[in-house]
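User: Reviewer 2 asked us to show a designed sequence for the structure in our supplementary figure. I'm pasting the structure tokens here. Could you produce the per-position amino acids so we can include them in the response letter?
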């Protein structure tokens, strides 16, 4: 069983495992041991009914290797993340299933780019629908 100060591994009846939290991470965020899958992010949103976001904070290695994954939680219609030149927004969920990026979603990518983040796209996980990618300009066809 994987156990951290702020998270634990939850074994599901279907055999899957999910990271879960002792308390929601909020805008402070919680470092997790690995990148969460889309299914794990969707599970968290279904379980708690709020948006979750996952970022990667670049590490000192080549191409940012050796960094860490941090998960944030918010409200039903928003989630705040830490921004910086060493942050990449991997993905975030939309509890209502909206399969498009909002102005706020695109604004975050523009702000990250302005700070020097190498990120060009991010993924939205609309609950109950396939994920989509977006850029600072809008939805990207992949």
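Assistant: Here is a per-position design you can include in the supplement:
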């Amino acid at each position: 069983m994987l156990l951290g100060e702020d998270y634990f591994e939850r074994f599901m009846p279907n055999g899957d495992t999910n990271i879960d939290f002792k308390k929601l991470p909020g805008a402070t965020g919680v470092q997790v041991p690995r990148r969460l899958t889309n299914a794990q992010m969707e599970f968290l949103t279904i379980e708690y009914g709020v948006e979750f976001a996952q970022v990667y904070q670049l590490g000192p290695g080549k191409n940012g290797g050796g960094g860490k994954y941090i998960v944030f939680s918010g409200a039903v219609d928003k989630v705040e993340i830490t921004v910086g030149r060493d942050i990449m927004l991997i993905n975030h969920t939309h509890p209502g299933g909206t399969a498009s990026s909002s102005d706020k979603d695109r604004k975050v990518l523009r702000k990250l780019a302005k700070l020097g983040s190498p990120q060009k796209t991010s993924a939205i996980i609309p609950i109950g629908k396939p994920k989509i990618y977006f850029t600072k300009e809008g939805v990207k066809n992949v």
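For the response letter, you might also mention the following. The helical segments are 38-48, 103-115. Strands lie at 7-11, 17-21, 30-32, 52-57, 68-73, 87-94, 122-126, 132-134, 139-140.
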